[in-house]
Write a structure and sequence with these properties.
- By secondary structure, the chain is an all-alpha fold.
- Helices cover about 60% and strands about 0% of the residues.
- The longest helix has 26 residues.
- It is rod-shaped, with a radius of gyration of 27 Å.
């Protein structure tokens, strides 16, 4: 904890020595780092369409299997009018 306080004090001390433009650049960079961290979290939470639809898997019992991987069934046009 002491190290964190020392880093915070050091950053504030050094920040105060910067010009207004440089301080704004530091603030912009901090906001960029926060955005990047948020984006990384969202990307890690992303799921596939299959995972999103998993709760409905098996709700229709057609015995056809997975149409996306069954080439013979994917070419069938009997059901299209």
């Amino acid at each position: 904890m002491t190290q964190a306080i020392n880093n915070e004090q050091l950053m504030l001390h050094e920040f105060k020595k910067l010009s207004a433009n440089q301080q704004q650049e530091v603030i912009d960079f901090i906001e960029f780092l926060q955005y990047k961290a948020q984006k990384d979290v969202v990307e890690k939470q992303s799921i596939s369409a299959y995972e999103a639809a998993q709760q409905w898997a098996g709700c229709v019992d057609s015995k056809l299997g997975d149409l996306s991987t069954n080439q013979a069934l994917s070419e069938c046009t009997d059901f299209i009018s």
